[in-house]
Specification:
about 130 residues, mainly alpha, about 0% strand, single chain, 4 helices
């Protein structure tokens, strides 16, 4: 939050919205509740070669490892078990789902089963829990 968070949010709005020509300034349509028109979401991808700023990519990786370790070592708020870096929850979920499968709601599984039958495909049986 605060001024820095607002500035980062504004920067993202400029780069992914105003700069790309997509919807911005509160005009991006809801992914879940508005099906009348496309969301018109913009994306901005920034690619940086760390070795142009540091001696090597490995030097950058080492600095990032140090930053992550420093963040993880910070005192945690009440009820927080661990500090995670962006992408860590998703990475953990990928590992788990690669092992146990992707959980599907019953109605989603049924609609996929119907589509598979229409295409003459066998729908895989659920994995045992």
């Amino acid at each position: 939050g605060g001024a820095k968070g607002a500035a980062i949010s504004l920067l993202m709005e400029v780069l992914a919205g105003a700069l790309t020509g997509s919807n911005f300034a509160g005009e991006v349509r809801s992914l879940y509740n508005d099906f009348e028109a496309p969301q018109d979401v913009g994306h901005f991808i920034l690619c940086i070669r760390p070795d142009l700023f540091l001696p090597s990519v490995d030097a950058f990786k080492a600095r990032m490892d140090h930053l992550a370790a420093t963040l993880r070592a910070q005192p945690r708020a009440a009820g927080v078990e661990e500090v995670l870096m962006p992408g860590e929850p998703e990475s953990r979920a990928e590992v788990e789902r690669s092992r146990t499968g992707v959980p599907l709601q019953a109605d989603v599984a049924e609609s996929l089963r119907v589509e598979a039958a229409l295409l003459g495909l066998a729908f895989p049986a659920p994995l045992p829990c």
